[in-house]
Amino acid sequence: MKYQTITGLLAVTLLFGCSSSKKVVPDVPPSQLYSESQESLQSGNWETAISKLEALDSRYPFGAYSEQVQLNLIYAYYKSDDLAMASAAIERFIRLNPTHPQMDWVLYMRGLTYMAQDSNFMQSLFGIDRSDRDPEPAKSAFADFKKLLERYPNSLYAKDAEKRMFALKNRLADYDLATADFYLRREAWIAAINRCQEIQKTYPDTEAARKSLEIEAKAYKKLGLTKAVQRTEKLIQLNPEI
């Protein structure tokens, strides 16, 4: 039954993807085209907005609206979940406008785009824990939000970026914990201990750091290191589960 449900969802997705096609944008003055794209953005009609903005970008690459068109495209791509195009648009904008006054927003959007890339469809849909998935997008998102806070501490997006960094820190710590557990199950005791100690050093204020003590203690027991076991078990007692 579950297989049929998943198959049905994927079929609907494929049909939707195949049925969508970009509309032909009339050759109208740039001011009118820009105004229409703004209306589409404000109404959340991302597909139409993207069509008009792309037309503006290709027809008038050095026009009066050029920079704002590029910024709007970043936002529209992101909102339409076209993360590959959003990333490409961001990198292009940074390359062409490295000192733009809205660079804090661009960094913020790049962080959001990386976070969206890190999300997992099956996890979101069925609540399956996939802490072991590739952490690179999460690391990149964390780096961008950190850069935003360092360069633009008074930015309107700084507070939200800080909150997202906290969530990302837990996500990265959980990944390392899953790796430590994998080493433990594979009887790679030293590798498990090293990863646990790295979690405790890098993410000391996370739940993963507390849980890593239990894995570390098990690995020490397997190695017959009695004093290390006792020391780790004492740390576990000092850091009880909340």
UniProtKB/TrEMBL annotation:
Top-level taxon in the UniProt lineage: Bacteria
**Keywords for the protein's UniProt record, in alphabetical order:** Cell outer membrane, Lipoprotein, Membrane, Palmitate, Signal
Which InterPro entries does the record cross-reference, listed alphabetically? BamD (IPR017689), BamD-like (IPR039565), TPR-like_helical_dom_sf (IPR011990)
Query: Is Transport included in the keywords of this UniProt record?
Result: no
Chief place where the protein resides: membrane
The record places domain Outer membrane lipoprotein BamD-like at 27-235
Q: Which CDD domains match?
A: BamD
Q: Key word Membrane present in the record? A: yes
Instruction: Quote a single Gene Ontology cellular component term.
Output: Bam protein complex
Q: How does it sit in the membrane?
A: Lipid-anchor
Database matches in SUPFAM superfamilies: TPR-like
Its subcellular locations are: Cell outer membrane
| Chain coiled-coil ranges | none
GO BP, one example?
Gram-negative-bacterium-type cell outer membrane assembly
A Pfam family of the record is YfiO
- Subunit structure of this chain's protein: Part of the Bam complex.
What family classification does the UniProt entry report for this protein? Belongs to the BamD family.
Described function: Part of the outer membrane protein assembly complex, which is involved in assembly and insertion of beta-barrel proteins into the outer membrane.
Task: Name the chain's protein.
Answer: Outer membrane protein assembly factor BamD
